[in-house]
Structure to design on (480 residues):
């Protein structure tokens, strides 16, 4: 019956990922939501701009948006759905004016509300979790009030559960749809989401990010050119709560609009692109703190003030960095893995993937994995990003239980950065090299000096030997 409806009333191609996704969704959805879900999908499929996969995943609320966003980066939905899934960054529905008003009244006293909230309520934006409203306080003229819907946690729990059943169902329909990254992605979202929606925690992350970005700004090469990168301050006058906190409102447009704006000169775009990429990479390679969500919606650019604002550090993660120059740390594993991919060195890819694993001593069929990796390398037309993705898929398929900090944290985050087009692919590689090199230089001069010198060139046999012995002895206590 549902198959019939879909084939009669939608233009989904039979057995396309789009159609399978919709069918799988309708299979797992609760009975009482089925009619609603079906009519939504049928309706949205009438509009040419809608994509069935995106419609189906949108029904998973915040989880669906996150799934689409990361899935797009990891190119998990096939080329025919790529563009639609990329646009998922603008997907979230903001709360309605009524909901905003009710929520503010609930969380602030009436006098506070009247004194603090500027009318009419103006929504500044909404991307995945928050609805951001402009307010006015006595001390700060323009504040961004970050609001969260009540009951989000429960919705998220229900949707996570639904998403897992959905993925199992996808596998049932099609082998092609059983991308080995699907389930790990949902698990990674599950690990992350509850800390991301905890606003009291986010306030801490805002403060941490601010301190780090200020340091980067202070030592930056763009400071002298009059450019500033900074994180807006938390406004303490409104006590941070589970569902509400306040940040100084900044002017400017999202990087997405900025880079699309034809009136902005190209050299300015290049400058801003460099600032964004270098700031993000220095956070990781100099400070050991990384935010994997540095996409185009999480920067606000003010051309007049020459200011780049870093917003939304909700996923900020500590990368277990060690300041000790002789200690191995996860950033080195990450850098060596990326280098091995670039060098197409199958042995080292496997070696460093195992270091990125959750458990030690996982048994995998190495011969088989090596063969399949070699096969991937033999298709010459893959971009370096596509190559990384294919390799990750293969490694997940082989059974390596990756620590999500690496895969859905750092590797995904690097793909977000390189894939957002802040700088050219070539330039991105150069900047990566510079920043990784500076990390190597800071590490033990004896061992890392060799690596730093060799980085970017082919490694000599000697340095390979040294560096292979290194991680074994160091990672046990430091890597995670
Ligand atoms: N401090 C701010 N000043 C002005 N606008 C902001 C500020 N913070 C967020 N916004 C707007 O709200 C949108 C969503 O904010 P963000 O913190 O990224 O929320 P989400 O967690 O939903 O992604 C941003 O893209 C931006 O347009
Ligand atoms: Mg955001």
């Amino acid at each position: 019956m549902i198959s019939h409806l879909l084939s009669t009333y939608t233009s989904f191609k039979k057995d396309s990922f789009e159609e399978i996704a919709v069918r799988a969704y309708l299979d797992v959805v609760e009975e009482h939501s089925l009619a609603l879900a079906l009519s939504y999908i049928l309706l949205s499929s009438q509009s040419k701009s809608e994509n069935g996969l995106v419609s189906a995943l949108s029904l998973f609320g915040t989880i669906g948006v996150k799934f689409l966003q990361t899935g797009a980066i990891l190119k998990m939905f096939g080329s025919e759905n790529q563009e639609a899934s990329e646009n998922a960054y603008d997907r979230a529905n903001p709360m309605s004016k009524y909901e905003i008003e009710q929520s503010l009244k609930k969380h602030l006293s009436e006098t506070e509300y009247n004194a603090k909230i500027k009318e009419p309520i103006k929504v500044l934006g909404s991307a995945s979790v928050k609805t951001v409203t402009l307010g006015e306080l006595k001390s700060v003229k323009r504040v961004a009030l970050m609001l969260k819907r009540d009951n989000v946690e429960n919705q998220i729990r229900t949707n996570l559960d639904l998403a897992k059943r959905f993925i199992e169902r996808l596998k049932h329909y099609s082998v092609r749809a059983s991308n080995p990254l699907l389930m790990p992605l949902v698990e990674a979202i599950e690990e992350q989401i509850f800390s991301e929606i905890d606003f009291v925690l986010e306030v801490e992350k805002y403060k941490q990010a601010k301190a780090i970005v200020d340091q980067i700004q202070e030592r930056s090469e763009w400071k002298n050119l009059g450019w500033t990168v900074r994180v807006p301050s938390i406004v303490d006058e409104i006590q941070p709560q589970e569902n509400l906190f306040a940040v100084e409102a900044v002017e400017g447009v999202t990087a997405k609009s900025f880079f699309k704006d034809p009136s902005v000169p190209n050299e300015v775009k290049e400058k801003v692109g460099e600032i964004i990429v270098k700031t993000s990479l220095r956070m990781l390679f100099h400070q050991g703190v990384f935010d994997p969500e540095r996409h185009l919606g999480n920067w606000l650019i003010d051309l007049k003030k020459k200011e780049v604002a870093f917003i939304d550090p909700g996923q900020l993660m500590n990368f277990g960095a060690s300041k000790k120059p002789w200690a191995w740390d996860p950033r080195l594993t990450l850098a060596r893995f990326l280098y091995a991919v670039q060098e197409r060195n199958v042995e080292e890819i496997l070696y460093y993937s195992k270091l990125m694993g959750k458990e030690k001593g996982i048994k995998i069929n190495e011969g088989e994995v090596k063969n399949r990796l070699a096969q991937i390398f033999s298709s010459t037309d893959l971009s370096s990003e596509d190559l990384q993705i294919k390799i990750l898929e293969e490694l997940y398929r082989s059974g390596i239980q990756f620590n999500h900090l690496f895969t859905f944290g750092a590797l995904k985050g690097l793909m977000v950065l390189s894939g957002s087009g802040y700088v050219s692919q070539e330039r991105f590689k150069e900047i990566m090299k510079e920043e990784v090199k500076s990390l190597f230089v800071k590490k033990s001069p004896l061992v890392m000096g060799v690596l730093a010198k060799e980085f970017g060139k082919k490694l000599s046999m000697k340095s390979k030997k040294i560096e292979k012995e290194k991680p074994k002895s160091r990672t046990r206590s430091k890597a995670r």
Summary: The chain has three domains: 2-91+153-196, 93-126+129-148+203-222+229-249, 255-480. The CA atoms of residues 167 and 183 lie 7 Å apart.
